[in-house]
Write a structure and sequence with these properties.
By secondary structure, this protein is α/β, with parallel strands linked by helices. Helix content is 40%, strand content 20%. It has eight helices and eleven strands.
Length: 238
């Protein structure tokens, strides 16, 4: 299948570089120089990846990301920025970005991140309605009061719908598909984020904490995602 990306970037040199390099992995790309035109292209096209600059001339990348996530369907979002503070990274991930790359970036890292996002998207496509009947992942997962509708990307806890970011959903789904198995932070980075990078373990910690805040009655005494001291985390179920 021909993959297609949308690059929302106001620097034409960077946009053309990303477009050219994505072509090296068989991915064509459209370019939009600002958020308004990027959103318009996205609504009128079909894309498998969005490469989104944080600093745009009209609305910033965070607002574009929020608007993209409010639209039907799911597409991986790789955010680019010249800023590298932890707050910027957390804000980008909180608004629904799947990954974060700081300028200047290496072409090899860009392609590695893009390929990891494509792999995860393919894995999730097997979870769409009807996939279970054809040997894909289960469409609905249930653990005690935790209900995960995989195809609809919907989570309920004791009947209450819980809104999750894209990465929070993928993290919870990974635990739910392997109940009782303990994962270290490095393993979760590799298997959920799609890459291992020293110093990014805090990203796992912050996502675990936010996820607990949404699905646990008492995040200080979690019933679902529990800590195995000195090792990592696991889904304990009921």
């Amino acid at each position: 299948m021909q993959r297609k990306a949308l690059i929302i970037e106001d620097n034409p040199e960077i946009a053309r570089l990303v477009q050219m390099r994505l072509g090296d992995i068989g991915c064509t790309a459209d370019i939009a120089p600002d958020g308004d035109r990027g959103l318009s292209r996205y609504r009128n096209g079909r894309y498998h990846l969005v490469v989104l600059d944080l600093m745009l001339p009209d609305m910033d990348g965070l607002e574009v990301c929020r608007k993209l996530r409010a639209l039907p369907g799911y597409v991986p979002i790789l955010m680019l920025t010249a800023r590298s503070t932890e707050l910027d990274r957390v804000l980008g991930l909180e608004t629904g970005a799947d990954d974060y790359l700081t300028k200047p970036f290496s072409v090899l890292e860009l392609l590695a991140r893009a390929k990891a996002l494509f792999r995860r998207a393919r894995a999730m496509s097997a979870s769409a309605p009807g996939a279970a009947a054809s040997g894909g992942q289960q469409e609905v997962l249930q653990h005690g009061g935790l209900h995960i509708d995989v195809g609809r990307r919907l989570v309920r806890v004791e009947g209450r719908e819980v809104p999750l970011t894209a990465k929070e959903f993928e993290l919870l789904l990974h635990f739910a598909q392997h109940p009782g198995r303990v994962y270290s932070r490095a393993q979760l980075l590799d298997q959920v984020w799609g890459y291992s990078h020293e110093g990014y373990e805090h990203t796992v910690n912050s996502h675990i904490n936010r996820l607990r805040g949404k699905i646990e009655r008492d995040p200080a005494k979690p019933r679902y995602i529990v800590t195995v001291w000195g090792v990592g985390y696991k889904l304990a179920g009921d």
